[in-house]
Amino acid sequence: MRQALLSAGAGLCLLFAGAPVLAAGMDDLVAAAKKEGALTVIALPRDWCGYGALIDSFKAKYGITVNELNPDGGSGDEVEAIKANKDNKGPQAPDVIDVGLSFGPAAKAEGLLLPYKVSTWNTIPDAAKDADGYWTGDYYGVLSFAVNSDIVKTPPADWSDLLKPEFKGSVALAGDPRTSNQATMAVYAAGLSGGATDAAKAAEDGLNFFAELNKNGNFVPAIGKAASIAQGETPVLVFWDYNALAARDNLKGNPKVDVIVPKTGVIAGVYVQAISAYAPHPNAAKLWLEHLYSDEGQIGWLKGYCHPIRFNNLVETKKAPADVLAALPPAESYAKAKFPTLDEQKAAKEVIAKRWDAVVGATVAK
Fold first, then answer.
1. Are residues 223 and 170 in the same domain?
2. Where are the alpha helices (DSSP H) in the chain?
3. Is 366 contained in some domain?
4. What range does the domain containing 244 cover?
5. 147 and 285 co-located in one domain
6. For residue range 140-194, what is the model confidence (pLDDT) as tens digits?
């Protein structure tokens, strides 16, 4: 699946809508982006995947203002923001989106995306990108339990543990399962932990699991985050591992946070990057993608505990810092991880979004 790097003699090759541009194209892109002067991103919490440092380094490097919309939004919110702002060239119109894998092809099918291939395109696995450049995988992680150990003395080892009486009023999701990819995948993972293999069946089993969790009083119907873990509002939060690890570090032991990858139902989520077809700042958006998919950007995600999509390439070329690799969980934590296909994600998403209200009956509030 991996293709060779472009040779150094070939120079930098930018690909606009699939057509190669000469090396000088990078200078032209920088100039055009600076002329636009701004970039609008959406649903990027600064403690998510190292995004705070990535945004700041982009601003420092290019002198472009970054408008950060709705940092707590989910993938569905991002797509809806494109639709709602098709004719809006103001700061409420997102230039780029970072969404769960299943949202990329769906947004492409609706004509909401602008194709663009970054200069490191050939080092990105074929299975993790749209062949025409409408969306590109950017990073992945696995769902884990972020646990406030000052409150929870015996942490859960697996999904089934969350149903125990000692977790009453404790368990939360990091989004609304009807719109958030992270929360949707959590419901799906809970279903997989019960042994289901079919995506729709796993989604249904996951809904039944959360219905029981809610009936037992264990489910907290609020969108959890690092602050709610620390404050004891959501002592157990189902979180992507990179978010959980970042929260652990940022809280600096106050309280102590344990990050646990469950024994079963380990699900890996790939997120994808794309440019809005209605982007007010299309050149700044392209430059942002160049920043993210450069070695610097990929290592920035790795420092935020995400596995960047070019991870294997960084390791092969010895560009991944040893100290950064050492800070990640051991490889065996990921050994059972399932990478759902697009069809599986689509099937699970449809069941969960449509039946959450009827089966679980809990409105997840911000």
1. yes
2. 25-36, 51-62, 75-84, 103-109, 181-193, 199-215, 226-230, 241-251, 282-293, 295-303, 311-316, 322-326, 342-359
3. no
4. 141-268+332-359
5. no
6. 999 999 999 999 999 999 999 999 999 999 999 999 999 999 999 999 999 999 9
